[in-house]
Amino acid sequence: MKWTQFFIPTSREIPADAVAPSHALMIRAGLIKQLVAGSYIYLPLGYRVLRKIEQIVREEMNRAGAIELFMPAMHPIELWQETGRVEAMGDTLIHLPDQDWRRGTVLGPTHEEIITHIVRSYINSYKQLPINLYQIQTKFRDEKRPKSGVLRTREFLMKDAYSFHTNIESLDEGYRIMFDTYCRIFDRCGLKYTPIEADTGAMGGSASCEFMTVTDAGEDILARTSDGKYAANLECAKLAPPHDAGCDRLDSIVEVHTPGIGSVESVSKFIGCRPSDMIKTMIFIADGQPLAALVRGDHEVSETKLKKSAGVASLLPADPETIRKVTGANVGFAGPVGLKIRMIADQFVAVIHNAVTGANKTDYHIKGVNPGRDFALKEVADIRAPVEGDIGPNDQPLVFEKCIEIGHVFKLGTRYSDAMHAHFLDAEGKSRPCIMGCYGIGINRIMAAAIECHHDENGIIWPLSIAPYHVLITCLDTNDEPVVQTAAGIHDELVSKGIEVLLDDRDARPGPKFKDADLIGIPIRITVSKKGLAAGTVELKYRDSADVQKIPAEQAIAQTIDKIRSEESRHST
RNA sequence: CGGGGCGUAGCUCAGUCUGGCUAGAGUGCCUGGUUCGGGACCAGGAGGCCGGAGGUUCGAAUCCUCUCGCCCCGACCA
After folding, report:
1. Residue A313 phi/psi, 5° resolution?
2. What Cα–Cα distance (Å) separates residue A13 from each residue in A10, A27, A59, A183, A399?
3. What are the C-alpha distances in Å from A186 to residues A219, A344, A407, A532?
């Protein structure tokens, strides 16, 4: 492909609105253009990358025995009502609000309902299972705040796969295969990634693993131990149980007048204790019932962990009115002593001695509170949000890293097959719900994540596997016939070997051509110039290295082919 | 959805506080010339409903009201 006949609108200006490096580079390299907040145009060069990624995903999914199909983006809302997810998705679900048929139509943010509908229509025997169906489709989610370019958008490409099984063992096997497949996909895309334990969230299900790429542009935080043995999403990262330091003397309870002093900070200052000597009592509404969560004064409740420990689907902070009703005191004076509602204590609360807590009486706190003695420790769990330096489950300190989710595998169980009656007959003729797994990959995010991982101050450094072209021939003296001939010859020779080549035939000075070459990041560059040809050589340079080889054209061609073939063979087994 | 910021040439931005000449610069683009290995130089040129609507005023990019859009922080998020 000749540059002059293609469309690569590069820019030297750094876009004012782009904060993430990948965002700025994608715009400058002419890969994308924003249409509105959260929707991007993929320009020709960017679209080539997207298709490369899709193709890798396809090959690996097919290799794993998954079967591709294609589902609509517009869904009848009835299917979503069957699983109760119109409410669960809330504002994220985009409804078409207009007339007639559109009133009952939503834009698909994911496709569990549709795939389950398909399976219940056709699958009725255990002999047809297991099966794994996938598609690559545009998803629509009304993200409240799109950001960081293509990393978080309202409209995005996703590969979503759904597996159906007759039993747990089969699900485990399918899940494991998908896990391995995801590793292969991300490896092939040249991504650095970390699989981490994740919460199952609104998807429901028993096990879930997120694949994260570490980048400052990310919006998730992973917590891992420095030995690399444990990594989890911050919202559900587990903590080692604390050891009980013991206590010489258990005080008895004393009431303290704390007029208008409700926050942990102000109370600790007023009373003269450390925040860690306090027990914070947070009141929630969990599945409609009040629930008290106890954490140490210097800790925060992890709503994700609390939800899981409590075994509830919905969890909301209680309103002041409810708090008054439940505790008998204004907000800021709740405490566990004498509280009648369900209480879950964090494991760190269980080992506090002589604590300070709210008195359940406005403007009063009590000190000398001892868990177990002054209130029952019926439910003790790990419900607090970790902070950096906390000790993880393998007794190693946790470190945090910002990251972006590029893939997610779930064991769903029977949530959808139950709700939508996707049943099969087993060997005994008994009707049972399919056991499901689901597996997603963000195609656009892979593209952005790859740039986040691979760039320098001059531009993108594409991994060969997803580069828009393998080779860029920079033809410097476009008015010199031998130079033009040589460049064209190299181009044709490589193309005839199935290699994707971009030929920069623009009549421009060398500076801008080299700058553009670095910016768009084609992995292999061959420079043809009058000066070089006079010495019988062209230049071969890899984007990820500063070395330049001056060698005869034939040798450059041979070496280029070698390089590409050896890269390809790394993943061909 | 709360808080903050910004909308002026394709892009990056001055000008707005303190209203007043033909609305500017750099870059990009077009013409011609000199150049030609890491974003050259000279000369000429095209390009704007100053986001939109209403208002104040003799006069509005500039002041007021409303509105739309975009970015950032937070909340939210398979």
Report:
1. -90, -35
2. 9, 10, 38, 36, 36
3. 19, 40, 9, 39
How far is residue A188's CA from residue A510's CA, in Å, rounded to a whole number?
Answer: 33
Cα–Cα separations (whole angstroms), residue A463 to A90, A227, A453:
39, 28, 10
Q: Name the CA radius of gyration of chain A, rounded.
A: 29
Q: How confident is the model at residue A314 (pLDDT cuts 50, 70, 90)?
A: confident
Which amino acid is located at A88 in the chain? Answer: A
Domain A254-381 in CATH 3.90.960.10? yes
Residue A225 CA and nucleotide B17 C1' are separated, in Å, by 53
Share of chain A above pLDDT 70, in %: 98
CA A100 to chain centre: 37
Query: What's the start-to-end Cα distance of chain A, in Å?
Result: 30
- State pLDDT tens for residues A215-246: 999 989 999 998 889 999 998 899 999 998 88
Average pLDDT of the residues in A472-480: 95
Token pair recorded at residue A493? 């020779």
pLDDT of A40 above 90: yes
Same fold, A254-381 and A469-569: no
What ipTM describes this predicted complex? 0.94
Superfamily of domain A18-191+416-451: Bira Bifunctional Protein; Domain 2 (3.30.930.10)
Strand B closer than 7 A to residue A135 Cβ: no
What 3 state SS string does A180-203 have?
HHHHHHHHHCCCCCEEEECCCHHH
pLDDT greater than 60 at residue A462: yes
User: Chain B bases under 7 Å from protein CB?
Assistant: 1-2, 10-13, 26-28, 35-40, 69-78
A312-348: burial string, b at 16+ Cβ within 10 Å, e else: beebeebeeeebbebbbbbbbbbbbbebeeebbbbbb
Q: Which of the 330-389 residues on chain A come under 7 Å of nucleic strand B at their beta carbon?
A: none
Domain spans, chain A: 18-191+416-451, 254-381, 469-569
Instruction: Considering only residues 23-42 of chain A, list those whose CB is below 7 Å from strand B.
Output: 28, 34, 36-38
- pLDDT digits 0-9 by tens, A492-508: 999 999 999 999 999 99
Cis peptide before A130 (omega within 30 of 0): yes
Question: pLDDT at position A99, please?
Answer: 55
Nucleotide nearest to A39 (CA to C1'): B70
Predicted confidence (pLDDT) per residue in A180-198, tens digit: 999 999 999 999 999 999 8
Its pTM stands at 0.94
- CATH code: domain A469-569 is 3.40.50.800
Looking at residue A316, its pLDDT comes to 84
Please give the nucleotide, over all strands, whose C1' is closest to the CA of residue A16: B12
A63-70: average pLDDT: 98
Q: Is the CB of A478 under 7 A from strand B?
A: no
**Which amino acid, one-letter code, is at A112?**
E
